[in-house]
Design a protein that fits this description.
Pantoate--beta-alanine Ligase, Chain: A,domain 2, binds adenosine monophosphate
Length: 260
C-alpha cells in the first residue's frame, strides 16, 4: 500500500465523528508541521462490547470536511484488512492496561496500542498528536513509543469542552436532554476537586459531588500521579483527577489537573 504521504508528517489518529476537540488536535498538528494526516478508523479491537462498536457514530463525508477545514492535508480511512492482515501482532499494555479504564474495558488498551503501532508503521509520521481527554491512553502510547523506540514525537493536546464544561466526545450525541444536564456533574466534580487543599480532600470532594447526581453510575473516580499513573500520595507533585461512569447507558470519561 502506498499512501503517497509527504514528510515530515504530523499525524492525528481518530475514530471519526469529528468534533471541535478533534479539530483542535489537527490545528496543533498543523502548527507543528505543514503536512497533516488524519486517520478515521473505528478500531474493533478496542471495543469489548459489540453493541458499543455498532452504535459508534459514523459520518465520513462530514469528517473529511471538518478535518480539511482544520488543516488536514490528507484524510485516510483505511479498510479493516489494510490495518489487520492475518494474525496481527497484538501489543500488550501490561499492568497499567488492567487498571482504571482497563478494569471496565477489558483488553481495550491492548487494542489501542495495537492499532496505534500499526498506523504508525503504515504512515511513518515524525509527530503524532493525542488528546489529554483519554489520559491513560496518552500515557500508555508515550510509554510504548519510548519502550519500542518508535521515533515518533508525541504531542499532548488539552481537553476541549462545551461552554457549560462537558468534555467534548463523539458519544455526547447519544445523551438526551435530561442526561445531558446530568452529565455536568462530572466537570463540576473535577472543578471542585481542583481547588481542594490536599490530595485527600480532592478525592473526597470528587466523590461527594459525583454522588449528588442519582443518574450518574460511577465506574471510578481517583486522583493519580500523572508521572507514574499510580494512585497519588499526599506529596504527589503532579496530581490529576480521573472520572469515568455512565449516564443513561452512555459512558463518559474526563480528567483534570489538581492545582494544590
Ligand atoms: P477518538 O476519535 O475518540 O479516538 O479520539 C481521537 C483523538 O481525539 C484522541 O487523541 C482523543 O484523546 C482526542 N479527543 C477526543 N475528544 C477530545 C476533546 N474533547 N478534547 C481534546 N481531544 C480530544
Amino acid at each position: 500500500m502506498n499512501l503517497a504521504l509527504k514528510h515530515p508528517l504530523a499525524f492525528v489518529p481518530t475514530m471519526g465523528a469529528l468534533h471541535t476537540g478533534h479539530q483542535s488536535l489537527i490545528e496543533i498538528a498543523k502548527s507543528n508541521c505543514s503536512n497533516v494526516l488524519v486517520s478515521i478508523f473505528v478500531n474493533p479491537l478496542q471495543f469489548e462490547n459489540p453493541e458499543d462498536l455498532a452504535k459508534y457514530p459514523r459520518d465520513l463525508e462530514g469528517d473529511i470536511e471538518k478535518a480539511e477545514s482544520a488543516g488536514a492535508t490528507f484524510v485516510w480511512s483505511p479498510e479493516l484488512e489494510e490495518i489487520y492482515p492475518e494474525n496481527p501482532e497484538i501489543i500488550s499494555a501490561g499492568d497499567l492496561g488492567n487498571k482504571f479504564e482497563g478494569v471496565h474495558r477489558f483488553g481495550h488498551f491492548d487494542g489501542v496500542l495495537t492499532v496505534v503501532k500499526r498506523l504508525f508503521e503504515l504512515a511513518s509520521p515524525e509527530i503524532a498528536v493525542f488528546g489529554e481527554k483519554d489520559f491513560q491512553q496518552l500515557f500508555l502510547i508515550k510509554k510504548m513509543v519510548n519502550e519500542l523506540d518508535l521515533g515518533v514525537r508525541i504531542i499532548d493536546a488539552p481537553i476541549i469542552r462545551e461552554e457549560d464544561g462537558l468534555a467534548m466526545s463523539s458519544r455526547n450525541v447519544r445523551l438526551n436532554k435530561e442526561s445531558r444536564a446530568a452529565s455536568l456533574v462530572i466537570s463540576k466534580a473535577l472543578n471542585e476537586a481542583r481547588g481542594a487543599k490536599s490530595i485527600k480532600s480532592a478525592r473526597d470532594v470528587l466523590h461527594k459531588v459525583l454522588a449528588t447526581e442519582p443518574n450518574f453510575l460511577l465506574d471510578y473516580a481517583e486522583i493519580i500521579d500523572a508521572d507514574s499513573f499510580e494512585i497519588a500520595g499526599a506529596t504527589c507533585a503532579s496530581p490529576r483527577a480521573l472520572v469515568a461512569g455512565w449516564i443513561s447507558g452512555v459512558r463518559l470519561i474526563d480528567n483534570m489537573v489538581i492545582s494544590l
